[in-house]
Amino acid sequence: MQIKIDLPADVFDAQFPEDQFRARVRELAILDLVRSKRLHEHEALEMLGIDRRELIDKMKEQGFAPTEDLFNEIRGALDKAIAARRNRAANGGKKRR
Fold first, then answer.
1. For residues 37 and 23, is the Cβ–Cβ distance under 8 A?
2. Fewest 10 Å CB contacts: which of 23, 73, 87, 90?
3. 8 and 20: one domain?
4. Same domain, 58 and 71
5. Which long-range contacts (CB under 8 A, 24 or more apart) does 40-43 make?
6. pTM of structure
7. Could you give the number of structural domains in the chain?
8. What would the pLDDT profile of 12-49 be if each residue is shown by its tens digit?
9. Domain that holds residue 77
């Protein structure tokens, strides 16, 4: 897919080159597709030609967490719940207040 954006030519110059702007817009579009679950992270890696660490950094810069961070967060909550249940069972099933 190609998207055309009409912008005044004079917004671009040596300090703000058109090709860098185009690359940045493409990157942001791909990251937004990952955020909205329209692309998988591995597809974004291929499309952007970057490594996993770079993708994670870019995702965090845009304010959303990579899949593994979400899984780690869920795993941490689950581990806490399991530990709390074990503690209750070890204390005769009494809930702590």
1. no
2. 90
3. yes
4. no
5. 41/66, 41/67
6. 0.69
7. 2
8. 999 999 999 999 999 999 999 999 999 999 999 999 99
9. 66-97
